[in-house]
Amino acid sequence: MREEHDVVVVGAGTAGCALAARLADAGRRVLLLEAGADHLPEELLDPASMRGAVPGHPANWDLTAELTGERTVRVPRGRVVGGSSALYAGSFIRGTRSDLDGWAAAGNDLWSYDAVLPAFRRLETDADHGDEAGHGADGPVAVVRPREGHPLADAFAAAARELGHPAEPDKNGDQPPGYGPVPLALSGGRRVSTATAYLWPRRGLPELTVRGGVRVRRVLIEGGRAVGVETADGVVRAGEVVLSAGAVGSAQLLLHSGVGPADPLRALGIPVVADVPGVGAGLTDHPQVYVPFRPARPLPPPPGGLPLHGVLHATAEGSALPGDLEVLPWLVPFSRITGAPAGDELLVGVGLQREESRGRLSLVTADPERPPRIEYRYLAEEPDRRRLREGVRLATALLRTRALGDLVETADVPGADDELDAWVRERLTTAVHLSGTARMGPPDDEGAVVDQELRVRGVTGLRVVDTSVMPRVVSRGTAATAVMIGERAAELVT
């Protein structure tokens, strides 16, 4: 497998598909390599199903992560064209102005909210707001919002109003945080992934070659320059290498290529190419816990069986970041969404959208076929514990409003702080919005891995383009921002 390409992109995921497509549009000869399949089975196109996220599914890397010192969970990551955008529930909410201007304030002015807004607009066709400023009407990703009319969904909206939370009708509209419908990446009742949005329309384009089932082991670096990649089947050479393998895969590939903290690499017998201490060191995500409830009477299924309808973003007491708590009601039991054995109870997800603690990704062996160690280090900081308690109490208060009183039955949640902390630790999980393992930053930021043009420190011709580069995880879901990163990176690469 010896070929010459202008760019080889490793990973046909949420950002990688967008990047590869836009580079091909610009006339670059692009080879897009994907470890998983280069086609999507029918079940991954069904937005009412998340079976691809169930452990053991071939489209899922099915990783293991340590949330705390005593709690380990399975973490689904997409292993198929479209990456995790082919597995998730379809929520497509942008990072906020506060998030992105925070990136800019840290020395990344090319990524301010106003700087990336054209990329957000370019990527979408918003069925509800496409004719408004700040939105797009002719982009590849179709965005729609659920309509009113389901009794439970409408009751949650009324419950938020009852507690004094403002309406936020456009979650992608740069508005103050509140309750509003979830923007969903859907078209014709089918899930829109970046594979269907960006790759399928470009099938046959001579500038774009997509290969599935190709496991990349490391980046080939000669004389300080990336010249290609080594795969399980041979070598691919290219003028430039871009890692878009996700916040786990890209950092893992950097480390196996000798780019990372020198001492741990030497301890594993990996030759050091560039001593970059920040690789794997800045992992961030959203801690999450679920508050259970049951309908008090039979309710109709939501239209199309879609599990999500509305979401509340609220600001915890004393928080500097607006909307750092997310309360997300699910209208369908997880057992029905995933097909995995579980009860029929419904859940309200409570997410902490800006954690103080930082996790780490590291290698446990020099074997590139072995998964890395993922340590979240959740709840290590008291402010995180306090705000997550506040989020659980907010979800419980919603369920006990008059608006929901005759519709739901709620489970008991401990009241005392120490008991609630124990309750949270027993149920703690993650939103799987992994970010920050190869974060961007200015030259004086010792923990940065890439500059704001996403070029890897110490290696010429190598970039990272995915959620790895986020200085901090955005305070909403990561899907829309990951696509934006692919779009924005294409501007910088070309």
Structure in a nutshell:
By secondary structure, this protein is of the alpha/beta class.
Q: At the first level of CATH, what is the class of the largest domain?
A: Alpha Beta
Provide the CATH architecture of the largest domain: 3-Layer(bba) Sandwich
Treating each run of at least 4 consecutive H or I residues as one helix, how many helices?
12
The biggest beta sheet is recorded as:
7 strands, mixed
Shape by Cα distribution: globular
The H-level CATH homologous superfamily of the largest domain, spelled out, is FAD/NAD(P)-binding domain
Strand content: 15-25%
**Mean pLDDT value:** 96
Number of domains: 2
Oligomer: single chain
Helix content: 10-25%
Number of strands: 24
Structural class: alpha/beta
- Radius of gyration, in angstroms, nearest whole number: 22 Å
N-to-C span: 26 Å
